[in-house]
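Subject: design request, 274 residues
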């Protein structure tokens, strides 16, 4: 019985460790995704040059920035509903498309400049510019929602708040990182910075599509059931080989029940941290 107890405890510990690496993988890639999700707040890094190039007023520039904020806030319920029903992969795919098209569209309008014979861009271009701003906000929020949802479902109560906090902090640092890159590498070149935004935000979403998904949390009750079932099966095989009587059967089942209760205490204490 001692050997079966040690084998069961080692199997439960190996099962716990086998889920640690997938959870850490989800956490790291979720942080990477959110680092590319908050770039909507880096709008001020290229907005002045955009206004000068297109000769548009501060009011029009504010509309573009406001559209990005609206994209973040109004798309939240939709992304939340989708991730509840279908999982996060649709969100990462949508984020890839929206961020790439949004920043690419802004770059194209910036590079085109003012049409010949006009003092500013046409109305339809202004509408497209606002629409591109909305797409960047909605795409960033899709990446954030998918990442936070996956991490929250992958970690237990002992680590859930810490890990989701790390993911959300990536969203806050995103604008700072890209704004710093703009001032260091692309100072005075908004077109190159917009190219970086279109590619640098889409690539993390592609990685999230492949690597970020919820890792199921096995409860202590389920783990005990599995361990007790293995012990019962092992005991039955030993009784069949040794022709153990009914008294031995009852003693074996009682010992398995006690072992299951002990494992339940150990597994519940481990799950507080995962």
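Subject: RE: design request

Done. Sequence follows.
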């Amino acid at each position: 019985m001692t050997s079966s107890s040690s084998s069961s405890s080692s199997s439960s510990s190996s099962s716990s460790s086998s889920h640690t690496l997938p959870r850490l993988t989800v956490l790291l890639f979720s942080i990477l995704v959110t680092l590319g999700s908050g770039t909507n707040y880096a709008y001020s890094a290229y907005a002045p040059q955009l206004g000068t190039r297109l000769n548009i007023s501060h009011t029009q520039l504010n509309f573009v920035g406001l559209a990005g904020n609206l994209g973040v806030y109004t798309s939240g319920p939709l992304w939340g509903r989708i991730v509840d029903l279908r999982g996060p992969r649709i969100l990462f795919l949508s984020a890839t498309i929206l961020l790439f098209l949004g920043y690419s569209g802004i770059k194209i309008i910036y590079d085109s400049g003012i049409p010949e014979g006009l003092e500013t861009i046409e109305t339809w271009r202004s509408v497209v510019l606002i629409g591109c701003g909305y797409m960047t906000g909605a795409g960033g929020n899709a990446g954030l929602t998918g990442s936070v949802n996956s991490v929250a479902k992958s970690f237990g109560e002992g680590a859930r708040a810490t890990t989701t906090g790390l993911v959300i902090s990536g969203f806050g640092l995103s604008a700072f990182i890209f704004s710093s890159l703009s001032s260091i590498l692309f100072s005075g070149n908004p077109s190159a910075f917009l190219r970086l935004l279109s590619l640098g935000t889409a690539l993390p979403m592609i990685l999230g599509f492949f690597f970020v998904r919820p890792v199921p949390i096995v409860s202590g009750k389920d783990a005990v059931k599995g361990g007790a079932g293995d012990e019962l099966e092992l005991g039955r095989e030993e009784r069949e080989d040794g022709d153990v009587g009914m008294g031995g059967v009852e003693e074996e089942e009682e010992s398995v029940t006690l072992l299951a209760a002990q494992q339940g205490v150990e597994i519940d204490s481990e799950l507080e941290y995962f």
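The longest helix spans residues 123-154.
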